[in-house]
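User: I'm preparing a small set of examples for a lab meeting where we compare how different chains pack in three dimensions. I only have the primary sequence for this one, and I'd like the structure in token form so I can line it up with the others. Please keep the answer compact; I'll paste it straight into my notes.
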Amino acid sequence: MELISTKLSLSQLLEPLHRKGQCIAFVPTMGALHQGHLALVAQAKQLADIVVCSIFVNPTQFNDPKDLEKYPRPFERDIELLQLAHCDILFHPTVDEMYGEYEQWNLNLGHLEQVLEGLHRPGHFQGVTQVLKKLFDAVKPNIACFGQKDFQQYKVVEHMVNQFKLPLALELCPTVREPDGLAMSSRNVRLTDAGRRQASQLYKTLQQTKADLHRKSLDNLCTDAINVLENSPGIRVEYFAIFHADNFTVASETSRERPLIALAAIWVDGVRLIDNLFL
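Assistant: Understood. Below is the structure token output for the 279-residue chain.
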């Protein structure tokens, strides 16, 4: 695996591959890798000739400086995991390499920035799109792989790709879960043993919502899910909602033509966890 830290070096390495017509898949990460990330790399390897992974803890997408400070950075272990996953290139730039001194960025994300994650983490998606545009420009991938756990982020990236008419395909990869159903996340390491057990209730509630889809109204499904979670020990609910998956708007009724997705954010042990499930 090649380890690259500058955009110039990355370009010099990738340009001959682009000229040969090789398909390049890209997996952007912030490190602290787990099996969810490695599943993205595995999917990327099936889709492309060359897999580029990035590790960059992006400061512009953190609302809370303390959250940025606490973000885990086990870089040596991440390198080992990517080597075992047969990743071809790791791009690991510094903040100075990615950002100039007085950069401005404001992308029109429409309603995507006004609901759920956009509402509860103002500015977050501006930071996400800002860094991903830089990374896409540096890698020039044919395919970029994202996990379903961050489904709203996927829709934001889709919006940006369409807005800039970027020549790449986006691949949505299934959420990888712990044996108890908890969606894998770099934040999970901050949970206590008791918190891990409490957090598993989120996926159970999403599954129950799916099972009850044709037995209750969508409003009642959300109300019942919130009640179950709020009454579960150690859980505080931030949101639980059912959206149309195609245009990411609130769903008021079921439709065979338009897939639905239930999305939730909860707090356990002072850790914010998100998850979702197609209904």
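A couple of notes for your slides: The two ends are 39 Å apart (CA to CA). The chain has eleven helices and nine strands.

User: Perfect, thanks.
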